[in-house]
């Protein structure tokens, strides 16, 4: 799970105008900038070069760059986001990825696919079918992945109301281990993996990210932090409260490769 680079995009001033189901106080832009900078610093601490893109005011959700592409060791697959307001974000990530990847593929209509529904687990990919990723988009991605030599399985989460994307509920942290929210822990698709279960009251922390020697976790979730440390992982807690208000998490904020 060695990464050399990460692409991020600075939140725009209209960040709080993005899509969200959050009912509380709106996201604070100043805090979001501070948290985003801390996130970038954490990535650099993990040993990756951070490629910083300027804010895209035409797309308030565009700081969640992970949804715009799926990356493998051999290629980049540009997605086709399931929310109409986010489809234009893909054009903004095409050129930066072109500097690193020769092979670039695209999900085509009528397929839709958000990168947040795709969990890479070594040579295997879990592909979530959700409110944002439809079956056509999932199968198009599966075709590209198979060409690159990967296996994959589909995880249908359309009946779940607690998460928007598959990776809101699972994270692969290497060594055959999956961090999994309780609601997903019994799924057949995850048999054969060692599951690190996330308690119901810490479900948000299931969206953590292994980056080289560290596991980045959202701050304020001591149970999952303790469970990871007990298994020999070094954890790096990061405050992401303002991104949580916009239905985003740690993995959403970067494309790592």
Record keyword descriptors for this entry:
alpha/beta
Task: List the SSEs and their pairings.
Blueprint: E1 5-9, H1 29-45, E2 49-53, E3 69-71, E4 75-78, H2 89-98, E5 103-106, E6 118-121, E7 124-129, H3 135-147, E8 151-156, E9 170-174, E10 177-181, E11 194-198, E12 209-211, E13 214-218, H4 222-230, E14 234-238, H5 241-244, E15 255-256
Parallel strand pairs: 1-2, 4-5, 7-8, 10-11, 13-14
Antiparallel strand pairs: 1-15, 3-4, 6-7, 9-10, 12-13
Residue share in helices? Answer: 10-25%
End-to-end Cα distance: 9 Å
Beta-sheet strand percentage?
25-35%
The global form is: globular
Average predicted confidence as pLDDT: 97
* Order of secondary-structure elements: EHEEEHEEEHEEEEEEHEHE
Q: Spatial order of the strands in the main sheet?
A: 2-1-15
Poorly predicted parts: none
Structural class designation: alpha/beta
Number of helices: 5
How many strands? Answer: 15
Radius of gyration: 17 Å
Give a written overview of the molecule.
The chain is of the alpha/beta class and 257 residues long. Helices cover 21% and strands 26% of the residues. The protein has five helices and 15 strands. The protein has helices at 29-45, 89-98, 135-147, 222-230, 241-244, and strands spanning 5-9, 49-53, 69-71, 75-78, 103-106, 118-121, 124-129, 151-156, 170-174, 177-181, 194-198, 209-211, 214-218, 234-238, 255-256. The chain has a three-stranded mixed β-sheet, with helices on one face. It has a three-stranded mixed β-sheet with strand order 3-4-5, covered by helices on one side. Strands 6-7-8 form a three-stranded mixed β-sheet, covered by helices on one side. Strand 6 and strand 7 (124-129) form a beta hairpin. The N and C termini lie close together (9 Å). The mean pLDDT is 97.
């Amino acid at each position: 799970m060695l990464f050399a680079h990460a692409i991020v995009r600075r939140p725009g001033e209209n960040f709080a105008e993005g899509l969200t189901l959050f009912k509380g106080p709106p996201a604070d832009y100043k805090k979001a900038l501070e948290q985003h900078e801390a996130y970038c610093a954490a990535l650099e601490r993990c040993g990756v070069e951070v490629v910083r893109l300027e804010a895209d005011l035409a797309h308030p959700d565009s700081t969640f760059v992970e949804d715009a592409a799926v990356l493998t060791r051999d290629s980049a697959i540009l997605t086709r986001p399931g929310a109409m307001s986010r489809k234009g974000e893909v054009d903004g990530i095409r050129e930066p990825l072109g500097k690193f990847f020769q092979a670039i593929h695209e999900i085509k209509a009528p397929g839709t696919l958000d990168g947040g529904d795709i969990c890479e687990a070594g040579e295997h990919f879990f592909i979530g079918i959700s409110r944002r990723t439809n079956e056509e988009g999932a199968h198009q991605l599966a075709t590209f992945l198979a060409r690159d030599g990967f296996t994959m399985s589909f995880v249908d989460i359309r009946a779940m109301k607690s998460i928007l994307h598959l990776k809101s509920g699972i994270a692969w942290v290497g060594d055959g281990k999956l961090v999994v929210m309780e609601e997903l822990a019994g799924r057949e698709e995850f048999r054969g993996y060692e599951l690190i279960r996330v308690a119901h009251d810490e479900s948000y922390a299931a969206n953590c990210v292994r980056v080289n020697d560290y596991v980045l976790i959202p701050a304020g979730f001591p149970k999952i932090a303790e469970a990871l440390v007990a298994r020999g992982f070094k954890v790096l807690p990061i405050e992401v409260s303002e991104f949580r208000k916009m239905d985003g998490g740690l993995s959403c904020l970067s494309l790592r490769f």
